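Predict fold of Ig-like domain-containing protein; 601 aa.
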Amino acid sequence: MSPSAGGLVVFLLSVQVIQSQDGWRVNYRQTDVCAAKGSTVYISCYYTYPPGIDPSDIKDRFWFTKEKDGEPVDLKTDSEYSGRVTYRCYSNSRSCYLLITDVRESDSAEYKFTFMTNKPGEKYTGSPGVTLSVTGFQVQVRRSDSTWLELTCHSSCVLSDRAEYYWYKNEEYIKRGSSLSVSSGSTDRYYCYLRGSYSQRSPAVYGPQRPSVSVSPSAEMLEGDSVTLTCSADANPAASYTWYKEHEDSPRASGQIFTITNFTAEHSGNYYCEAQNEMGRSNSTIRLIPSSVIQSQDGWRVIYYPTYVCAAKGSTVDISSFYTHPPRIRSSDIKDRFWFTKEKDGEPVDLRTDSEYSDRVTYGCYSNSKDCYLTITDVRESDSAEYKFRFMTEKMGGKYTGSPGVTLSVTGLQVQVRRLNSTWLELTCHSSCVLSDRPKYVWYKNEEIIKTGSSLPVSSASTDRYSCYLRGSCGHGSPAVYGPQRPSVSVSPSAEMLEGDSVTLTCSTDANPAASYTWYKEHEDSPRASGQIFTITDFTAEHSGNYYCEAQNEMGRSNSTLRLIPSSEKGGSTWSTTTTVFASISAVFLLIIILAVLYIR
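Predicted 3D structure, encoded as tokens:
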């Protein structure tokens, strides 16, 4: 009889002999075994006893890991192994085995076999026994070079040589093997599992998701306050955190928490937290500005938060303010509150009456509150301006404007191209100012969405068009970037070219970023000229040959060829190779006609 179990079975091969005096002994096939969590483990032994004992005298045989009151506890009676343990001895044989299914890390222990006869005190235990180590899986990450990582499925002890690993990316099977190469810019999740281990798999590894950045105090920040920034990102392996201030190369701090004591105007600016692990990096930006308190005598004031906003074209912008007035003014005395950017005859112009903002502006104040807001939808670059809040009362002179106000900068998106190596490019969605919200970018290839994220790796051989959009920005995306299309090459004069003429070649192509142009002559390594136009003065037979124009930008390159041959005689054609053949054929054809006419006559 042989044991049968689904999944991976760990077989123990070598023999360990435990022998006492007088012929009592236990042979274990192996004394150490490493098994994957969720797999099935098979342990076997062979026992002997003195010749004077009859097989019928053996009354019990079992396996154990624990003792109680100095006596072994049968593994089958242990609730931790309930429904997972089988053991048996082969018929008319002293060979026995233990089978444990769906092993757990808590099963790691020393397993011993004991047997006893029907005579009091006549028993024997094979000791030391078999040490079982149950391991889970981890994915180890090693950088191969600047653009590639090697993932390895790792266990804390050495598994059987027959172990087969499977790799998954975002829940989809991709390959079999102990290791996997992936791009260091990947935003996917990878994990491995051992075939037959009852779907027990490693935790997934992935780069940091876009960090979440919070600030405390979360309301207005006044000069002299202690300000604490906190950064967190979902990542495995766990991310490390570094804090930078915009336009500074050296980090301000490391760790999830960054505290600025005695906050002043000098601390104002954009701070970004970079989360990084072996799989990649990601960052988020937050802008810190002490609340701008505009206050006149007698308690009139306006507090803006924030005082600077960068927004993507097509997005929605929210600006808020808080105002106060002297105690003698009652809330019911406030007759009007509005926002403005322009003045006419020295008086502010209500933004709602400006045709440029028609149907795009909403503002109001919360009930029984001095908290007011301005919302601008589908913002345009022309909306970039300083926005101020004004309120006025029924009383003469009872009006106040918060100045300076809130500066809004509206930016379009551009795709920046950076070469990673000879075969890969990195595209980054870029704006001219740091967006105030946590922007989520979407990438398109040839008008079809392909992924989300602030950057995108692409092959330098790609002929596709890539653009990025800000999610929720009303469809305003960046101009597409793409390599040069096949250039169009023209020559002037376009008719015949005679020796001594000045010949001008012109090259043009569709590309973004704009292409640069280089002219080569066939079989020459050095370029003849650069730029869209190449002029040959005093054209001679020595200038004959194939010329090609190469158009190149950060996305790729393309070229077109033109053949130049001076006309051999006045009145001949520019394209002498082609027209000479045509003239020869015409002459032969004319001669045949003449001969035919003469023959008929």
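Helices lie at 576-600.
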